[in-house]
Design goal:
With 228 residues, the chain is α+β, with helices and mostly antiparallel strands. It has 9 helices and 6 strands.
């Protein structure tokens, strides 16, 4: 039987954070965070190492408590109007080994009451990376279609993120991929239920989802001249 990681207590804690988003409450319940959210998520990340390496030898599932795949639950409030100190969700990114050299696409898993999802791609690529992707789309339209319009991709994933209202400057408005050239984000995701998150199916489901989104991640790696 497959191992389960999260429990209903995971989601009860995250809902409670949303209701009691202050440092005093969090410090009083930090043991619950460790037991029900952080520790099981770190174990899941550990168990994703081997299957992720089979998808791509260049991607990492890093189970370190700090600086690894798991995002901090503490919010960065320095430049935000929202001064609440904690996130009411927990997310993890699975990153390219060369991420410190060049902006790279990644895989992602997100646990949140009512909004669990997984997927991959590039969220808010920087101007140079965005330019590379758009140029690569113009030069390699057939490969983009294979990556994002296959039966498996369309059945399991949905492209999302923000797009420009008008075609980007310098690109043919009549180009066959103009709607994709308008994109400011190149991500694909799929949602899952809290019941699945708490079941022994979460690990195999996540691996299957990462395999399904891998052609998009591979394409974006190629646009950035990165190995996949």
């Amino acid at each position: 039987m497959s191992q389960s990681y999260f429990t209903p207590a995971t989601f009860r804690f995250l809902r409670a954070v949303e209701r009691n988003n202050n440092r005093e409450w969090f410090h009083a319940h930090k043991d619950d965070y460790e037991r029900h959210v952080r520790e099981p998520f770190l174990q899941l990340i550990t168990d994703l190492q081997a299957p992720l390496a089979k998808i791509s030898a260049h991607y990492r599932a890093d189970p370190r408590k700090n600086g690894g795949s798991l995002y901090r639950i503490y919010r960065d409030t320095r430049y935000s109007n929202n001064k609440l100190p904690y996130k009411s969700w927990q997310g993890s990114r699975f990153f390219h080994q060369r991420r410190h050299e060049i902006q790279a696409p990644g895989f992602y898993l997100h646990i949140e009451p009512g909004e669990c999802f997984a997927g991959g791609g590039m969220w808010h690529p920087e101007p140079d990376a965005l330019k590379h992707i758009r140029e690569f789309l113009v030069d390699n339209p057939a490969a983009w279609k294979r990556a994002t319009q296959s039966k498996t991709f369309r059945e399991h994933l949905q492209l999302g993120g923000e797009s420009l209202v008008r075609p980007p400057r310098g690109y043919d408005p009549a180009h066959e991929l103009i709607e994709d050239l308008k994109r400011k984000d190149f991500v694909a995701t799929t949602t899952f239920s809290e019941a699945l998150a708490c079941s022994g199916e979460l690990l195999p489901w996540t691996v299957a989802t990462f395999k399904q989104v891998a052609p998009l991640v591979d394409y974006l790696c190629a646009a950035q001249e990165l190995e996949f």
